[in-house]
Amino acid sequence: MSRTDSNGRRRPPTIHDVAREAGVSRGTVSRVLNGGHYVSPAAEEAVNAAIRKTGYVVNRHARSLITGRSDSVAFLLTEPQERFFEDPNFNVLLRGCTQALAAHDIPLLLMIAGTRDERRRIARYITSGHVDGVLLVSSHSGEPVAEQLRAARVPLVACGKPLGQSSKVSYVSADDRDGAREMVRHLVRTGRRRIATVTGPLDTPGGTERLAGYREILAESGIEADERLIASGDYSRASGESCAAELLRRAPDLDAVFVASDLMAQGVLTALGDAGRRVPEDVAVGGFDDSPAALDTRPALTTIRQPWDRISAEMVRVLLAQIGGEETSTVTLPTELVIRDSA
Q1: Sheet strand arrangement including 195-199
Q2: Separation CA 12–CA 64 (nearest Å)
Q3: Cβ of 202: how many Cβ atoms within 10 Å?
Q4: Which of 76, 189, 222, 254 is the one with CA 20 to 30 A from 65?
Q5: What phi and psi values does residue 269 have, to the nearest 5 degrees?
Q6: C-alpha span between 133 and 72 (Å, rounded)
């Protein structure tokens, strides 16, 4: 529906146009635009129909002056920029969060802070009110960003259980420990006894929880733990390759490797191939994530599936609830063993 000003020029539709089209007051339209509180279903339906018909678009700047909100959310990745492009998990999570927020007409701002200076600048930007809340991804133990944001009363939801936080932080996580237990249990069931592991960073929840699950199943299975079979990676493909080479030097009789991410598992498979080891005949390999990286390996990678769609949707749900005034909360989602050819 086009309208013109006094000079005959087309002008964008206004809230008054929507109210006139819907047959309601401007205040009713405003309440619908701000969440639909104290509005009857019939009036809300009429307003939404009028918005579609007129093509009205909310003036976010004007609304932010009234509500004190920016109507935007930050996706904050505390990793070096190159890791964002290398690790497919971050892209999957970003896409899911973007889609979940789009249903609420809220844009998502990607922020990458891989250094102390970058984190300090971004924390200052966030606490100045430029976003309404933060989806925090890949937080390391001892990293002060979460504490700073919580101290500033910025709504915050972490992906994974934060380590070493003195205040309560909302988080959404896959069950890392149970997923690791299921993978190692599968390796034991297939007859493997010299099971090595390449862990994630041990200052992250995924790194510590997956290592704990590995140790628990070895103990339950009566397999003596051997520290020579444990190597610590950083979730990169290069670290998986170097860790596997080191494990083969320390324990050449290993017959399986549980790898704490699919991307590192790609590197492990490369190192095993270079050493002349067949997979799975000589060495079985299991990953974690069921990311796109799992489908690019040869042989196809047996792995633990994280429910990325549910994780992203729950992160957005918990954050919006917190922005709306609810208390912090936590969500832990189940994982699933996906058996392919590598183990």
Answers
A1: 230-232, 195-199, 256-259, 284-286
A2: 19
A3: 14
A4: 76
A5: -65, -35
A6: 8
Stretch (H or E) spanning 99:
helix 88-102
CA gap 189, 275 in Å, rounded = 25
Q: Give me Rg for the CA atoms of the chain.
A: 25
Distances (CA, A) of 119 to 99, 144, 201: 26, 9, 19
**Cα→Cα distances 228→196, 250, 264, Å:** 8, 6, 18
From the list 330, 332, 329, 328, the residue with the least C-alpha distance to 154 is 328
Type and span of the H or E element at 284: strand 284-286
Instruction: Output helix, strand, coil percentages for the chain, rounded to the nearest 5.
Output: 45, 15, 35
Count of residues for the chain? 343
Residue type, 253: D
